[in-house]
């Protein structure tokens, strides 16, 4: 194993070991049977669908993470309209990276300078016909030891409120990525959660655990955040709500979407390249909250994806970030990009449905998840590591989604 990844995986396993009070030396890695299972299942015989993992150690103490075989619902078509919406929201995600250079301005439409004029998406009618009607309402800047940089914009032409979060950029972002120790889940909107449970609209989330690093977001949510969204919907009650993000921003978008759902909104949560952040019980509860099974069944029966609300995750072929951390699970309905390089077109999309079915490893193909076949981005020192981690695949979601440029 290469030194850098060996260190990263060691950090991961140390965190998991501390969580369950496992004891092992720093010169060996425990066999899989000694590692924790958050769902009480045998990880050697049962695993999740396309985005859950088979996790093995070989005789050389090399960890192998293998995505399980997915279900491709051929009869559920990806329409041109849905494809265009997925591309559009990937650009909404990419704009979060303009916050780093202070290029998003509140109180202005995209066309007026709310986002960089050098981007065709912000000024070009062909790229974005509603740029002159899309207003930047709020820029969220996470302070030290906080999480959740992003922005709030309103497209008055399409009548949609958009909340988008940025991926890993700051030191705190990276610390949160690696803090995989599970912690008990408690929603920030606790009184609303209690109302849902008491009224029987959703089950109580007993024994629910969440990725500790991403849970930081729930501890830093402010009332100002919710007040601003509430004021917008007071003025425009008929507007729809989309919560989106890339990578770490996708994890944050998932948590924000849960809070907004508990508060009575019907958001469409749309994540790109999200890591797994839920333990099994919490994943099942989130799917119940967002009516994942009902939306999936409707989509299958109608032959098209019901894409007005619910929880959807877009996953790129061989994007390894969507396969980790081990022992956590993805929620929602999966839309899969089966083509590695840009451009990705409508024909490169598959509907793969809910991330909830466990299957036997006997039915899975086995391939090393960390291989050298990925595409890096050409950094002189980090290029080989990025290639090994498949960082290009992690960023190539219809555009290079982690850059404030090129769209």
UniProtKB/TrEMBL annotation:
Entry keyword Signal: yes
Entry-linked Pfam families: Lipase_3
Entry's Gene Ontology molecular function annotations: triacylglycerol lipase activity
Ranges where the Fungal lipase-type domain occurs: 163-327
Signal sequence segment: 1-19
GO biological process terms held by the UniProt record: lipid metabolic process
EC number: 3.1.1.3
Presence of keyword Signal: yes
Keyword vocabulary terms for this entry: Hydrolase, Signal
Name of the featured protein: triacylglycerol lipase
Native source species: Lachancea nothofagi CBS 11611
């Amino acid at each position: 194993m290469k030194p850098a990844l060996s260190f990263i995986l060691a950090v991961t396993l140390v965190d998991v070991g501390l969580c369950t009070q496992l004891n092992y030396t720093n010169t060996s890695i425990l066999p899989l049977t000694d590692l924790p299972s958050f769902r009480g299942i045998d990880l050697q015989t049962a695993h999740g669908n396309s985005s859950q993992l088979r996790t093995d150690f070989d005789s050389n103490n090399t960890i192998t993470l293998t995505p399980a075989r997915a279900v491709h619902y051929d009869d559920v078509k990806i329409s041109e309209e849905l494809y265009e919406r997925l591309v559009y929201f990937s650009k909404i995600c990419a704009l979060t990276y303009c916050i780093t250079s202070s290029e998003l301005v509140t109180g202005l439409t995209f066309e007026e300078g709310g986002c960089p004029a050098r981007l065709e998406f912000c000024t070009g009618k062909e790229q974005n016909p509603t740029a002159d009607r899309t207003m930047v309402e709020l820029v969220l800047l996470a302070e030290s030891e906080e999480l959740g940089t992003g922005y709030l914009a309103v497209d008055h032409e399409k009548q949609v409120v958009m909340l988008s979060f940025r991926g890993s950029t700051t030191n705190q972002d990276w610390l949160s990525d690696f803090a995989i120790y599970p912690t008990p889940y408690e929603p920030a909107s606790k009184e609303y959660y209690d109302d849902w449970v008491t009224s029987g609209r959703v089950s109580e989330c007993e024994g629910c655990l969440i990725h500790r690093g991403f849970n930081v977001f729930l501890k830093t949510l402010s009332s100002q955040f919710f007040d601003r969204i509430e004021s917008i919907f007071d003025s425009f009650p008929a507007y729809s709500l989309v919560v989106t993000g890339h990578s770490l921003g996708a994890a944050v978008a998932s948590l924000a979407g849960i809070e907004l759902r508990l508060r009575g909104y019907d958001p469409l949560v749309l994540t790109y390249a999200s890591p797994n952040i839920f333990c099994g019980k919490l994943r099942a509860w989130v799917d119940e909250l967002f009516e994942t099974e009902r939306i999936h069944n409707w989509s299958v029966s109608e032959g098209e994806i019901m894409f007005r609300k619910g929880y959807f995750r877009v996953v790129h072929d061989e994007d390894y970030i969507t396969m980790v951390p081990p022992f956590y699970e993805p929620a929602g309905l999966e839309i899969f990009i089966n083509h590695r390089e840009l451009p990705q077109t409508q024909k490169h999309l598959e509907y793969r449905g809910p991330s909830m079915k466990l299957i036997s490893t006997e039915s899975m193909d086995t391939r090393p998840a960390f291989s050298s076949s990925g595409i890096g981005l050409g950094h002189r020192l980090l290029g080989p590591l990025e290639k090994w981690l498949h960082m290009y695949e992690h960023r190539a979601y219809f555009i290079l989604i982690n850059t404030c440029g090129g769209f």
